[in-house]
Write a structure and sequence with these properties.
Strand content: 5-15%
Shape: globular
Helix content: 55-70%
Distance between the termini: 70 Å
Number of strands: 6
Strand order of the largest sheet: 3-4-6-5
Oligomer: single chain
Largest sheet: 4 strands, mixed
Length: 551
């Protein structure tokens, strides 16, 4: 099978897993709804240069990902499918690129192993079925860094065949990294720069890239980012950049919006979230190479180990702890997992007892959770008694969700996959072991989404979404009280043409100048407080959400 045929097969398999049913469940607050709303407002305002939320300038993110979503919405209509489609396409592109890169570094088998590790691990797979920015952001960073790596290899005459000149790879890397900065901001440049710096130190302070060459690389990145940052600054001054810098600093220095966590948060997320690849990656998480490996194979392992630790340590230091902050680790982690599997295949590494235990522990958590949840669904009263102090969560669990018992199917499937995978690995039948474990995990993810995601959404936010969808087409203001949500903008399809004071805090609640009907959504934590507001009339409540209309 040639490279083109293999690439087409990878694309077809990825498309079958990633694209169907993208629109079967509402977007989730905050990030999915936030980003989709930014894209929707680009379409409504016909302004694709500046990002808006609630038709006010939004400085937290650059526009590249919203351009992709807006393009999809223009083709398929505003909705969940279009909001998530860019990441499904990113998944297909990513897997094809990993195959070609892996084949170039080793051989066709290694390329397929890398694809299997990325495709068949839980969080890397799941993110391609979401509507968040990070899959594209991480891809641009990874490709930008590879541009520098290839530049170094070409310049220093590594034994790998690279058909282009060294400056082509350096400039291409800068260009792609610039798109990364247009996707989520300067963190892209920070990650690559830190990785280059650590490599420089571990390389004995030898200049594998001269200061002038690095400046040219950075200038290329800047030229790309100036496409938007420069035009924005020229048109509207430095206000946007100042606010963006303040926001970025707040994320680094404080647990923004309550997203705190313990110091080992991202270690735990990567170990369990990247099951089963994380177990195999641990075996190669060092600079130790194997006899017979080429100069560029040894060097690439060093780059991937450095990239992994740079990202992990950087976001361990950052005060805000959010799952996708460490998602850039997925590239080096799955590469190192594929490297271990390749070495096992060649008889250089054995499938050890600690690997078996690690797979059983990390996979067993998901087996237990997916089997236990349907069982616990028959004991909602008991769960509510254990969380009685959290009145909102208690009311969430009153949602009318039907559980049949078949929801345990994904857990049973994963248990069988894990048992069969261990059986094949124990007998050194690595082809069957890899196929069973990683393809089986991809099937598990798909089954879990099918059985659980609508039920989880039904418990957590569906009541509020239904209320908002009923307001579509109504010329009104909708505000949340004492909690933050982007759902009113997207799901009520709010439009511009508002009173100039309507963005001020409490204006819609209290001002005598209100010129449209006002709806207020709050959580039952604050129900007693809002009930005392004489200007509000309670019009309903459901699953912990309380709805009011201003008299």
């Amino acid at each position: 099978m040639n490279r083109i045929t293999t690439s087409i097969l990878i694309a077809l398999v990825a498309g079958v897993f990633f694209i169907p049913f993208l629109g079967n469940v509402h977007l989730f607050d905050w990030d999915e709804i936030n980003f989709a709303e930014a894209a929707r407002e680009m379409i409504v305002l016909k302004d694709y240069l500046r990002v808006h939320i609630d038709f006010q300038p939004f400085w937290e993110k650059p526009p590249f990902f919203f351009w992709l979503q807006a393009l999809a919405m223009n083709v398929f209509g505003v909705g969940e499918f279009a909001a998530r489609l860019p990441n499904a396409i990113c998944g297909i592109i990513t897997l094809i690129l990993l195959y070609h890169l892996g084949e170039q570094l080793f051989n066709r088998r290694f390329g397929l192993l890398w694809v299997a590790c990325y495709f068949g691990s839980i969080l890397p797979h799941l993110y391609f079925r979401s509507g968040i920015i990070d899959p594209w952001f991480n891809l641009w960073i990874f490709l930008g860094l590879n541009g520098v790596i290839f530049f170094r290899w070409k310049k220093d005459r590594f034994s790998i065949r690279l058909p282009r000149g060294q400056w082509f790879y350096l400039l291409l890397g800068g260009f792609l990294l610039g798109i990364g900065m247009l996707t989520k901001g300067p963190v892209a440049f920070i990650i690559v720069s830190l990785t280059l710096g650590v490599y420089f130190v571990l390389n004995g302070f030898k200049f594998y890239i001269s200061p002038l060459q690095f400046i040219i690389f950075a200038l290329m990145t800047s030229v790309v980012t100036a496409i938007w940052y420069g035009i924005e600054t020229y048109k509207n001054g430095f206000w946007y950049l100042q606010e963006f810098i303040k926001y970025s600093y707040r994320l680094f220095s404080t647990p923004d919006a309550g997203h705190g966590g313990f110091p080992g948060y991202h270690f735990v997320i990567l170990f369990f979230g990247c099951f089963p690849a994380s177990t195999f990656a641990l075996r190669a998480l060092s600079f130790r190479s194997q006899p017979g490996e080429t100069d560029y194979q040894r060097d690439y392992q060093k780059w991937m180990v450095i990239l992994f630790w740079v990202v992990l340590i950087l976001f361990t230091i950052v005060k805000s702890k959010i799952v996708h902050y460490s998602s850039m680790c997925y590239f080096p982690l799955t590469y190192l997992a594929a490297l271990t599997l390749q070495r096992m295949w060649e008889g250089r590494v054995r499938f050890s007892t600690w690997m078996k235990v690690s797979l059983i522990v990390s996979g067993g958590i998901f087996v237990l959770l997916t089997i236990a949840l349907p069982i616990l669904s028959n004991h909602i009263d008991w769960i509510q008694s254990k969380i009685a102090n959290d009145t909102f969560a208690v009311a969430n669990l009153d949602a009318k969700i039907t559980w049949t018992g078949w929801e345990a199917t994904p857990g049973v499937v994963l248990a069988m996959v894990l048992a069969a995978g261990l059986y094949f690995f124990n007998r050194q039948q690595y082809s069957k072991g890899v196929t069973t474990l990683f393809l089986g995990t991809a099937v598990f993810i798909t089954l879990t989404l099918g059985f659980f995601i609508n039920r989880i959404e039904g418990i957590s936010q569906a009541a509020a979404i239904r209320f908002l969808e009923a307001r579509q087409g109504e010329d009104c203001y909708i505000v949340t009280y004492r909690y933050r949500s982007y759902a009113p903008y997207f799901y009520a399809r709010q439009q511009p043409g508002r009173h100039l004071s309507s963005w001020q805090d409490d204006w819609a609640l209290r001002s005598p100048e209100v010129d449209k009907p006002v709806y207020v959504i709050t959580k039952n934590y604050f129900e007693a407080e809002t009930d005392t507001m004489s200007q509000l009339q309670k019009i309903g409540s459901e699953n912990g959400f309380v709805f009011y209309k201003r008299k």
